[in-house]
Amino acid sequence: MSTKVVKFGGSSLADSNQFIKVANIIKADPARKYVVPSAPGKRNSKDTKVTDMLYACYDMAVRGGDFAQMFDDIKQRYLDIIEGLKLDMSLEKEFETIRHSFMARAGRDYAASRGEYLNGKILAKYLNYAFVDAAEVIFFSEDAKLDLEATCQAVKKRLDEVGNAVIPGFYGSMPNDTVKTFSRGGSDITGSIVAAAVNADIYENWTDVSGFLVCDPRIVPDPEPIQTITYHELRELAYMGATVLHEEAIFPVRKAGIPINIKNTNKPDDEGTMIVESAGTDDCKYTITGIAGHRGFVTVTIEKDMMNSELGFGRKVLEVFEAYGISFEHMPSGIDTMSIVVHKNEFEEKEEALLKALNSAVKPDKIEIDRDISLVAIVGRGMRSQRGTAARIFAALSHAKVNVKMIDQGSSELNIIVGISNEDFETSIKAIYDIFVVQML
Ligand code: ASP
């Protein structure tokens, strides 16, 4: 029988109704043997995630303030779930331990991790699965980095013993047994680790959207979902702002060759997005896979006569940026010009000193700065085999009266990045979506 590791995000487990949906999903497929829950998320847009409540409550405890009310509010979230599910269980002992640990200053990571821990206890009881505390099987080393090898061994051994199990997301333990969490959203990482450890056939990541969308729904209403995306494409899109999954969650499953399926708890029949190591172009519905972008870049264009014959010119320029701790995003160049695209906020605070250093390092004829740059990345493995993709992008932008300030295409032909004015940001994404998707529907 195949094995699936299923991770459910905070909105999928925000209240008892959501728990019922989750249990139905799990029970619908016996391969869904290992379950990784997040802490209860927001029940509506004005609500607060339990993780945030725990941080705030712990901070209050550390300041020596009265945290009783905050603590009771957290407790109530869990009591409501238990009551809604009509479960015969009490977490009184756990809450007492947590309260004491708060007073004993057990640490912010410990505090936050209790969100997943308690949710895991309830879910295990509701599903009648074993509960495996992540602190017993997920290990960080002395330098606070995940010890993937030791963790995979421990997870595998333990899960083989217990059969079906719930393993809370987001945390593990340090060599001195204190609790340590991943960065925010880190239950995705736990799910990925568990999937790698048990060599699952698939890692299902259940959330509140039906996978990755071709572009940001705040710009294009109701965009098409992406059915299949490669890890490479995902990396490009995530880097340019598309988020659904914690970036570090990719590594363990990718290394083990396990695909990730992003699914929607509220619409379980939707296919969602499949993330795979490699995919052909047959299943590319459109030439492009996705469009993402960011506002707020600056280009620094350095001009110098005969630059192209001056050996080491580029290196010297980049060394100056490096010395000021500014990483560059792109570097399109001409015969006697070189443009460095950087994040505006990183650049502006060091601008004066950096320009001075550039002037003395390479003695340019001129340095020009354009502070009005947005970048839009058009990503897709399908571009490689299609002629005319670039032509279609630029025709679409030209029809939309957008002036293209910069173009960058990697030789992998996986993406084309265009630089435009900030005011053209949304228009550009809409125009590109229109030509590649709407007109193909
Ligand atoms: N509960 C944690 C957070 O809010 C981890 C997670 O949900 O993945 O960041």
Describe the structure.
This protein has 441 residues and is an alpha/beta fold. The chain has 2 domains: 4-203, Carbamate kinase (3-Layer(aba) Sandwich); 290-440, 2-Layer Sandwich (VC0802-like), CATH 3.30.2130. Helices cover 38% and strands 20% of the residues. The two termini are 38 Å apart. The model has no long low-confidence stretch (mean pLDDT 94). The structure holds aspartic acid (ASP). Residues 10, 38-39, 49, 51, 115, 169-170, 184-188 line the site of aspartic acid.
Short description:
The chain has 441 residues and is an alpha/beta fold. The protein is built from 14 helices and 16 strands.
CATH homologous superfamily name of the largest domain?
Acetylglutamate kinase-like
The helix/strand order is: EHEHHHHEHEEEHEEHHEEEHEEHHEHEEH
Low-pLDDT sequence parts: none
CATH architecture of the largest domain: 3-Layer(aba) Sandwich
Class derived from helix and strand content: alpha/beta
Number of domains: 2
What is the helix fraction of residues, given as a range?
Answer: 25-40%
**Rg on CA atoms, Å:** 25 Å
Mean pLDDT value: 94
